[in-house]
Structure prediction request, 396 residues.
Amino acid sequence: MTGPNAPLSGLRVLDMTRVLSGPFCTLTLGDLGAEVIKIEDPRHGDEVRQMHVSEKLGLSSYFLAVNRNKKSVAIDITKPEGRDAVLEIAKRADVLVENYRTGVMQRRGLDYDTVATVNPGIVYCSISGYGRHGPDKDRPGYDPVVQAESGFMSLTGEPDGDPMRTGVSIIDVIAGLFAGEAILAALVERERSGKGQFIDVPLFDTSVNMLVHAAAACLVDGRVLGREGNISPNAMPVGVFRAADGPFMLAMTSDRQFRTFSDRVLDRSELADDPAFADNPSRVENRERLVELLNGIFGARDRDHWIGRCREAGIPAGPIRDVAEALTSEEVAGRDLITTTPHPTAGDVPGVRSPMRLSRTPVVEAVVAPGLGEHTEAVLRDLAGYGDTEIERLRQ
Prediction:
């Protein structure tokens, strides 16, 4: 499962996460070659094993998407024997990642202080809704609620519509990426100090960080930005425009681009000379007039015509696709982003390749997400040192 030349080859990660934020973190570590050992409840496993179950495969497509390159060990951590088994594995791990509610790992005897007594060098990463300290530490963290509370949702949607959450649970995903980055930083520091440490990555803190320029505008000038839909308040033309057969996205941010666009895409050089459109502030001020004018021009030809001309001229433009259209696009094929991995019962399972391309130490070839408890006995024998008697006792 781990490639000998992969960047994290030889690194062992104890994965005590479920659903999305934690599994996305360990997914990236596994792609980079770490050995990821996922601890699951023997009764039902990760909750997403029951979500998006494919009629074709009989497996959860959600689980398959975020749990490749991992080993599954089914252990009941609510039992002392289960806790002891996990601690034995933790002794030989470099990293532990968990995303339970605050207090759960303490009650199970698997909190950082306890694990660090058996493995002082462990890097222990905790992903939570609102942090392990503070007034909201006991609240469960759910991506849609965090998007709402953090201000992130107020920036998404049409100006005259309701605030919208993103179609993908983006806070969970970015929290997982922040967690992975922090883990790698802690591992680099451990090379100098020889010491492990505790990492706290909350969804709420992540979402506030993702406000970026909106946070800066508020903190510096007291400006509260709102929803802009698909346009940009700072540049024009940016947004969705309509060709004869459907919409497409267009974006340009400089006067030079608009001049090229007028000359080479529209064959309307006079637009760039019009005082109402000659510079970006004027185009923003006269946005509605420019949108109406451009849609009138675009409506005469299909979107492939306009997108083709934009690309020839170096103007950013692209079709608005649904997921199926995107996954079957020339761009996806050109980047070889779709892979298939063999599954013992479901045949070849398609998936999306990691976006990380390292020239000398590439990511590992994907191994399909494991069945519940598929690697329990092997891991208990190899890492915990259990024999037949101990394994049978634990099973009972």
Notes: Residues 170-193 form the longest helix (24 residues). The chain is about 40% helix and 15% strand.
